[in-house]
From TrEMBL:
Signal peptide residue numbers: none
Keywords annotated in UniProt: Carboxypeptidase, Hydrolase, Protease
Superkingdom assignment: Bacteria
Keyword Hydrolase attributed: yes
Gene Ontology MF: a single term: serine-type carboxypeptidase activity
This protein's name: D-alanyl-D-alanine carboxypeptidase / D-alanyl-D-alanine-endopeptidase (Penicillin-binding protein 4)
UniProt family annotation: Belongs to the peptidase S13 family.
Listed InterPro entries: Beta-lactam/transpept-like (IPR012338), Peptidase_S13 (IPR000667)
GO biological process: peptidoglycan metabolic process; proteolysis
Keyword Hydrolase: yes
Matches recorded under PROSITE patterns: PROKAR_LIPOPROTEIN (PS51257)
Length: 424
């Protein structure tokens, strides 16, 4: 055996020994943090992965299934990036003399209070007759497993093929009562009831004593949509049901990344649901979010080691079941496929933005870029961790079925993240 071969073999043995020691050191310290009495009465899973070396840094119940809550939006983001172009397809349309026929794609930005897109309105103003095609969405208005009592909650608007105003009524009573859309102001009643809307009727309730801004989901049906459209384009609107006729053109609205960023940053359930519907519009004029979920699981994500039960785009449903390993796999795909600056810009930043503004702050700079998921007695966080040594780690830390305050769970998680940041 040559001297060179002997030195090479010695180097490999030393490297393997050092790596084994480091791995043992990491596992010992993180396990010590997790296997305490604090976690005895809950279900916890963790996976930390180094995408540069393809090494598993730490794993604990990584193959088990958890209720993911809004971590589900990571899969929705991945799907959108696979299907949608750089500009959101606002609607499909056909022109005939002085008439425009418009068919929804699920774009949630039309007259939305954050995006305030008016692409459809600007185009429709140029025509004497405007026909809105309705009922090309096969999804139910609510997702499977959604809580029925959330019908009036801001986070649970109805899904639809052509949303308008984000499918919510926005009320502000700070100075004088203001509503968006204005036409629904006459449907607002002053009361101190805890409910904000009649169960299946567009009669809304507002407490003047609070004087805050609230959003209340609207009941979406054909007649109501016609009323809202006639308000902005009086004398022009007609409504027809979808009959399968293919539209000739596509109009585009906002930059796609602006929609994804908003969904991820504030964990907007409505945007997440509509993004999957939008993705389905690239497959067919008949909109169906279930078909796009099935397609991507059977194609781009067919290599997942633990295929999830994935029933909605937002994570509102407790029927969803995902394993930490699945989130890490998808996050790794995103990390390898999307430029780093663009990717990290889409995620909430620990200590700085969105749902992570009050948590996981760095010392001199951010070290966590991740999506949280919160639903009663469950909290998870999945994303990217930047260590002091400059390494980027992909992680998923999931907690289910605890009775203690979520803030205590977050503190324990932060201690693990900070240890990894400082010691890896």
């Amino acid at each position: 055996m040559s001297v060179f071969v002997k030195k090479s073999l010695l180097f490999v043995l030393i490297f393997s020994f050092l790596y084994s020691c480091k791995s043992t050191y990491i596992n010992k310290n993180i396990t010590r943090k997790i296997e305490t009495s604090f976690y005895n009465d809950q279900f916890t899973g963790v996976l930390v992965f180094n995408p540069k070396t393809n090494d598993t840094v730490f794993k604990y119940n990584a193959n088990k299934y958890f209720i993911p809550a809004s971590n589900t939006k990571i899969f929705t983001l991945y799907t959108a990036l696979q299907f949608l172009p750089n500009q959101i397809p606002a609607f499909k349309y056909t022109l005939e003399n002085d008439k425009i026929t418009i068919q929804g794609t699920g774009d949630p930005t039309f007259l939305h209070t954050f995006f305030n897109d008016s692409t459809a309105l600007k185009m429709a103003r140029n025509y004497k007759n405007v026909n809105i095609v309705f009922n090309n969405l096969e999804d139910d208005k609510f997702g499977p497993g959604w809580a029925w009592e959330d019908y009036d909650a801001y986070f649970s608007p109805e899904r639809s093929s052509f949303p308008i105003y984000g499918n919510v009524l926005t009320i502000n009573g700070k100075d004088s009562l203001q509503s968006i859309p204005k036409i629904l102001k006459q449907s607002i009643k002053y009361t101190e009831t805890s409910k904000r809307r009649n169960y299946n009727e567009n009669i809304f309730f507002y407490n003047l004593k609070k004087q805050d801004t609230i959003e209340i989901p609207m009941v979406i049906d054909t007649l109501f949509i016609k009323k809202l459209w006639q308000d902005v384009l009086p004398g022009k609107i007609s409504i027809s049901n979808y009959i399968g006729k293919k539209m000739e053109h596509i109009a585009y609205s906002v930059p796609s990344d602006s929609l994804y960023k908003r969904m991820m940053e504030v964990s907007d359930n409505f945007l997440a649901e509509q993004i999957l519907i939008l993705a389905s519009s690239t497959m067919s004029d008949t909109l169906n979010s279930n078909k796009v979920r099935e397609y991507i699981l059977n194609n781009q994500l067919k290599d997942l080691k633990q295929k999830p039960r994935w029933v909605d785009g937002s994570g509102l449903s407790r029927y969803n079941l995902f394993a930490p390993i699945s989130f890490v796999q998808v996050l790794t795909k995103l990390y390898n496929e999307i430029p780093r600056d663009r990717l990290f810009n889409l995620f909430p930043i620990g200590g700085e933005t969105g749902t992570l503004k009050k948590y996981y702050s760095g010392i001199s700079k951010p070290y966590i870029y991740a999506k949280s998921g919160t639903i009663g007695n469950n909290y998870s966080l999945s994303g990217y961790l930047i260590t002091n040594s400059g390494e980027t780690l992909v992680f998923s830390f999931m907690n289910n079925h605890y009775l203690k305050p979520s803030v205590e769970v977050k503190k324990r998680m932060q201690s693990v993240f900070e240890w990894l940041r400082d010691n890896y």
